[in-house]
Amino acid sequence: MSALSPIAYLIVGIEIGFWVLVISGLAVRYVLNRPRLSALLLAMTLVLDSILLVVTTRDVLVNGATPTLAHGIAAFYLSVSVTFGKRIVRWADERFQYYVLKRGPRPRQLYGYEHARYNFSGSMLYLLAYLLGGGYLGLLIYLIGDLGRSVALLRVLGFWTVSLVIDMAISVSYFIWPRRPESEAAD
Fold first, then answer.
1. Nearest Cα to 10, choosing from 21, 2, 18?
2. Which residues contact 15 (CB under 8 A, 6 or more apart)?
3. Closest Cα partner for 109 from 184, 29, 39, 180?
4. Please, where are the H alpha helices in the chain?
5. What's the gap between Cα 156 and its chain centre?
6. pLDDT digits (tens, 9 = 90+) for 28-63
7. What DSSP state is assigned to residue 18?
8. How far apart are CA 10 and CA 52, in angstroms?
9. Cβ atoms within 10 A of the Cβ of 103, count?
């Protein structure tokens, strides 16, 4: 079994850093009552994303590394992080207030068409992530100029395409078969 590539370790480190910054930003906002410092900490997640983008691109285009699965996953991670970042922070913020600080309303479950619309908006964000990340992968493949060296990136793009189609199908299914509360589902 081979060890992870340096890019894979970087992705893991940046994901850990992302959650450390989000949790720290929320703690600083609500516990220390420092909204500006909180905003700075939350904005630092974009710095982490930028580091991953630069290192990944440099590794392939400047250092001449053959792209690996980790390079493709980096594109996926970056585009999902950028498109879903605000939504993830909002989700974490609601849960931090309710479960940690014991204030604010309990995060509510969505049902029916409200659930369907929410999931569909998530699918639209996922489509945007796909277009951004897929565009980046396509540009990288073009700049490498050798499909033989770009096989890993093409595979990531293929799996990602299948994942997007499945995600869209699931979202559309919620309009056809809306999610119901468990009490109604038994009827």
1. 18
2. 77
3. 180
4. 6-30, 35-61, 69-95, 112-144, 151-176, 182-185
5. 15
6. 999 999 999 999 999 999 999 999 999 999 999 999
7. H
8. 7
9. 8
